[in-house]
């Protein structure tokens, strides 16, 4: 976290937002509270000094109301799935959230670029793409490439998605419980709530590279964990439940920060500390896997996938 946004200010606005909602909405907002603080804190940090930054949120939620409350200088544009798929309308985002434009689009079926829409989408200083990727049936690299194409020269894409290799997923797999959601019956996923495929950090980093982008920041987030689990996995961030990346266009002047190297160091087989947290026996010295050979991020991702293939067999 950057602490560019006062946690007290966020808590006050969050309390006011939740107080106005029906009681059956409170659990959802409480579960997502920490994740959205991370989002708004990052937005405050990376847009500091910009005059009226133009922000595109892809995937609208109840928290969309907070943009104007927390950063009233932001010019907000929203894009959500089609209304017939329970997407939000302009009446909500423009009427209640202060958005200046709103669009509806099915990313599974239609590509997006700066010329799309009426008026055309154009380019943005910051794009928020949170907890959407896992709901799509399209290549992550393709979607990321399209979103990077909507950025201005030094704009940023803020992307979050669940970590397939979180402690929760490992626990399920060790019980031979499939960690992914069952596929819906025909016509029963109108709200697009199914997680079709969750990602690993290596895959996400590789997707940015394949999209021609530049990874600026990467981190694991414990935003979903309860306090007991947070303490248990405090020293093993690669087991945390969410993935966070910031990416820019390939020709951007932005440079990767230290987090990128730290995250790529977690690629490869489980560490002894991770095995201990998961309750697995230590590997015998004779069976210790070799350390990944340094190289391009795509090669590291391939090494991870190769290791997983052997494990699955």
How would you summarize this macromolecular structure in one to three sentences?
This protein has one domain: Vaccinia Virus protein VP39 (Rossmann fold). 34% of the residues lie in helices and 16% in strands. The chain has eleven helices and seven strands.
Overview of this structure, please?
With 313 residues, the chain is an alpha/beta fold. It has a single domain, classed as 3-Layer(aba) Sandwich (Rossmann fold), CATH 3.40.50. Helices cover 34% and strands 16% of the residues. It is built from eleven helices and seven strands. The protein has a seven-stranded mixed beta sheet, sandwiched between helices. The protein is globular. The two termini are 39 Å apart. 35% of the residues are buried.
Overall outline: globular
Structural class: alpha/beta
With helices defined by DSSP (H or I, 4 residues minimum), what is the helix count? 11
CATH class: Alpha Beta
Whole-number mean pLDDT: 91
Amount of beta strand: 15-25%
First-last Cα distance: 39 Å
Number of strands: 7
C-alpha Rg (nearest Å): 20 Å
Structure keywords:
globular; Rossmann fold; 313 residues; 16% strand; disordered C terminus; 7-stranded mixed β-sheet; 11 helices; alpha/beta
Question: Can you lay out the helices and strands and say which pair or pack?
Answer:
Blueprint: H1 7-19, H2 26-46, E1 54-58, H3 66-70, E2 75-80, H4 90-93, E3 101-104, E4 124-130, H5 140-148, E5 151-162, H6 167-174, H7 201-210, E6 213-221, H8 227-232, E7 242-249, H9 258-264, H10 272-277, H11 297-312
Parallel strand pairs: 1-2, 1-4, 2-3, 4-5
Antiparallel strand pairs: 5-7, 6-7
């Amino acid at each position: 976290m950057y602490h560019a946004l006062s946690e007290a200010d966020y808590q006050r606005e969050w309390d006011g937002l939740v107080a106005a909602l029906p009681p059956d909405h409170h659990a959802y907002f409480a579960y997502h509270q920490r994740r959205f603080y991370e989002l708004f804190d990052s937005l405050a940090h990376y847009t500091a000094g910009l005059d009226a930054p133009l922000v595109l949120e892809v995937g609208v939620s109840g928290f969309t109301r907070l943009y104007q409350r927390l950063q009233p200088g932001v010019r907000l544009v929203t894009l959500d799935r089609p209304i017939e798929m329970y997407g939000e309308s302009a009446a909500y985002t423009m009427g209640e959230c202060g958005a200046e434009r709103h669009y509806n689009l099915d990313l599974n079926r239609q590509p997006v670029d700066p010329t799309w829409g009426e008026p055309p989408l154009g380019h943005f200083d910051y794009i928020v793409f949170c907890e959407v990727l896992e709901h799509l049936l399209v290549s992550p690299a393709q979607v990321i490439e399209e979103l990077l194409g909507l950025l201005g020269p030094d704009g940023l894409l803020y992307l979050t998605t669940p970590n397939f290799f979180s402690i929760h997923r490992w626990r399920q797999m060790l019980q031979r419980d499939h960690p992914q959601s069952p596929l819906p019956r025909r016509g029963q996923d109108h709200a697009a709530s199914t997680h079709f495929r969750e990602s690993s950090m290596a895959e996400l980093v590789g997707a940015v590279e394949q999209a021609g982008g530049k990874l600026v920041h990467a981190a694991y987030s414990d935003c979903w964990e309860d306090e007991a689990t947070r303490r248990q996995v405090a020293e093993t961030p690669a087991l945390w439940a969410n993935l966070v990346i910031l990416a820019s266009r390939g020709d951007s002047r932005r440079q990767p920060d230290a987090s990128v190297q730290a995250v790529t160091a977690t690629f490869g087989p489980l560490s002894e500390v991770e095995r201990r947290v998961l309750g697995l026996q230590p590997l015998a010295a004779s069976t210790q896997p070799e350390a990944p050979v340094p190289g391009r991020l795509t090669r590291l991702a391939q090494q991870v996938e190769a290791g997983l293939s052997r494990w699955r067999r």
